[in-house]
Design goal:
2 copies of one chain form a homodimer. Chain A has about 260 residues and is α+β, with helices and mostly antiparallel strands. Helix content of chain A is about 35%, strand content about 20%. The longest helix of chain A has 27 residues. The structure holds a DNA duplex (30 and 30 nucleotides).
DNA sequence: CGGTAAGTTGAAAAATCTCAATCACGGTGG
DNA sequence: CCACCGTGATTGAGATTTTTCAACTTACCG
């Protein structure tokens, strides 16, 4: 069942310890200590005793069918969510109907950090394919991270990493032209998929051209045209959402050589 | 000495308790407990005993002359900095010489949160006028925030608020046209100045057209033209960096009415 | 008072958007 | 099983916005 489709997260990240293939099947119970995402997620660096404590906290799993909201802008913030399987987008919307995709999240990534600021979510999180998440009650995470330095530090790092990522997106939106934006986006996507055991060159997009465009500050037609140009230039094969990167270095060069 | 110039932060935020007008003068020693910024800064919500603990931590003050770096991209991350007086910009730079201003910080705002992610700073922080900051050693802040729930929560809120702010900038960069961006920027700036006791209508910019442009994803000429248009439309008076808002509602309408 | 950095303005070029037509694909019901 | 429908993707042509390049002005600093 090893596949390159990002939708099917069946390839173990930690090969010698697949998550749920040993032990009894408990479909609504999860344990960080046996999760194959633990090296990408909140538990990084925790020792076995600490991991077990975290298991007690991250007790609830929730599945989110494709197209459904995990949470909505304005809802009360109660918990963070770690993507277990599947793929999400987050988007902010201004008073007037403007809409901006602020990120795409895959296995091991945390959703909901924006909610801490005011006890209410500031964006929508929508599953782009059938997905499941681990629920991390925020109050309990606070308590536990007062006890375990490593957990506290890791949590702070994750928040800080989100800030750094956001600054990178600002650079992209503020400085890059369409081709550079799309190239940077694709390289980021494949890098993250690769970190999860997928092919670096072959992927299926979970989002529409419009969603990519919203994220990159472009109209869907521009995204489509740019894909076509990449294909024409021999950088990649594009069949709708099925992509194959043919020249990763070429894409990288697009991002590096500031508008030349 | 009450002035509307953002450069001179002499107007007390908490009117009945000006920061340094009582007690002995200690130019290189600061105390959160007597700081007039404490309702805008890290100490929000702390009780007197906790405040005193924080005082022990935030011991060092540092002045940064105009044009100097507070820290640089790549430097080891040791501490966060709270702006005490003055005005800063932060900018990220990509491998190729691209440069993006990611924010402007004024009194009470925290600098350096991006450094937590990797123990190294990911951006430059530059003083746009003679400034001073309080140094908050990060390790000590971690320790103290394990002890005091309120401090822990406030620190998390500040990080989360930065994430929310960044998402707002993404919306601006991804969805708005030049006029809307500049209007949104000016409204944000005046709102923050007003929260610090300054006039909502009269201000002096601390940054160049180029720096505004970098932040807003526009070229300096576009920023200049847009200022001229605002002046022509009677929204504001513009004399180089000296601004007077004449029609705040008109600016707000520009931001709200999505490109109409 | 001169030199330099910052700001303004104009005109032409370039990038992106808008509008419109058409195509591809997946799901559904006959 | 296949035709049909709706959503998403592609492509073209013209409009719009922003950038680029250039000339010129203003303010500030020694």
């Amino acid at each position: 069942m090893l596949t390159t489709l990002p939708g099917a997260m069946s390839m173990p990240i930690i090969p010698d310890m697949p998550a749920r293939s040993c032990g009894p099947l408990e479909p609504l119970r999860v344990a960080c200590s046996s999760c194959n995402l633990r090296e990408l997620c909140l538990p990084v660096g925790l020792n076995p005793a600490e991991l077990q404590q975290l298991d007690g906290l991250v007790a609830k799993r929730r599945s989110v069918p494709r197209g459904e909201h995990l949470f909505r802008n304005g809802e009360r913030f109660e918990a963070l969510y770690a993507v277990r399987t599947g793929f999400f987008k987050t988007c902010v919307n201004s008073e007037d109907g403007r809409d901006q995709v602020t990120g795409f999240q895959m296995a091991g990534e945390l959703l909901g950090l924006d909610g801490i600021s005011s006890d209410h979510h500031h964006c929508d999180a929508v599953a782009l394919e059938d997905s499941s998440v681990c629920t991390i009650p925020y109050g309990q995470l606070e308590t536990l991270s007062r006890e375990f330095t490593v957990l506290q530090r890791q949590f702070h790092k994750i928040m800080s990493r989100e800030i750094v990522r956001d600054h990178g997106v600002m650079l992209l939106l503020g400085n890059m032209r369409a081709e550079e934006r799309l190239a940077a986006f694709l390289l980021n996507l494949t890098r993250r998929l690769q970190a999860r055991g997928f092919s670096a060159s072959s992927l299926v997009l979970r989002m529409t051209r419009e969603e990519i465009g919203s994220y990159l500050g472009l109209k869907l037609e521009t995204v489509s045209r740019t894909f076509s140009k990449f294909q024409h230039d021999g950088l990649m094969e594009v069949k709708q959402r099925q992509l194959r990167i043919l020249d990763q270095a070429g894409l990288q060069a697009l991002v590096n050589n500031s508008h030349c």
